[in-house]
Every structure is written in C-alpha cells, then in structure tokens.
Backbone:
C-alpha cells in the first residue's frame, strides 16, 4: 500500500475512533464508576492516537523532526492505552 492509500486508511480509522468516542460520551453510564471512566479515557486516547497517525500520513512534506515528535506522541498515548487496558481488566 502506497502513502496515499495509507493516508486514506488512517483518516478512516481516525473518523471511526472519534465516532466511537463520541457515542460513548452520549451513552454515558447512569452512575459514574472508575471502570466507566477508564473505558471512556481509553477510547479518547485511541481516537487521539488515530488522529495523530492520520496527520502523519497526510503530511507529505514533513520534516524528520515532526515525524519523530508525532511518533513519540503516538508511542506515549499507546503506552497509556495499554496501561488503561490493564487497569480495566483488573476491575472487570
């Protein structure tokens, strides 16, 4: 898959993740719980990671420094998602 196909795929993934997050916000849990909060935060982070990936693929004239910065942000958010996954599993 070439860069344009990767960019289109990344855009669709970002839109999907954002829709999932917004749906979770609208379908909130009647009583707030730590588990519900963690699941919502995990979805928010997934949407943010997807958006960063889409931006990176869309930008064809990027500077190497920008790519490194975006990759660092993606890695950091991905680590937070993994940590939240572990916390959610402990609570379930």
Residues:
């Amino acid at each position: 898959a070439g860069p344009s196909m990767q960019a289109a795929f990344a855009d669709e993934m970002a839109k999907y993740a954002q829709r999932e997050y917004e749906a979770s916000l609208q379908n909130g849990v009647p009583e707030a719980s730590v588990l519900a909060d963690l699941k919502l935060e995990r979805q928010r982070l997934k949407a943010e990671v997807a958006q960063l990936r889409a931006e990176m693929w869309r930008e064809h004239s990027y500077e190497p420094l920008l790519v490194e910065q975006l990759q660092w942000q993606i890695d950091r958010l991905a680590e937070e998602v993994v940590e939240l996954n572990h916390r959610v599993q402990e609570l379930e």
In short: The mean pLDDT is 78.
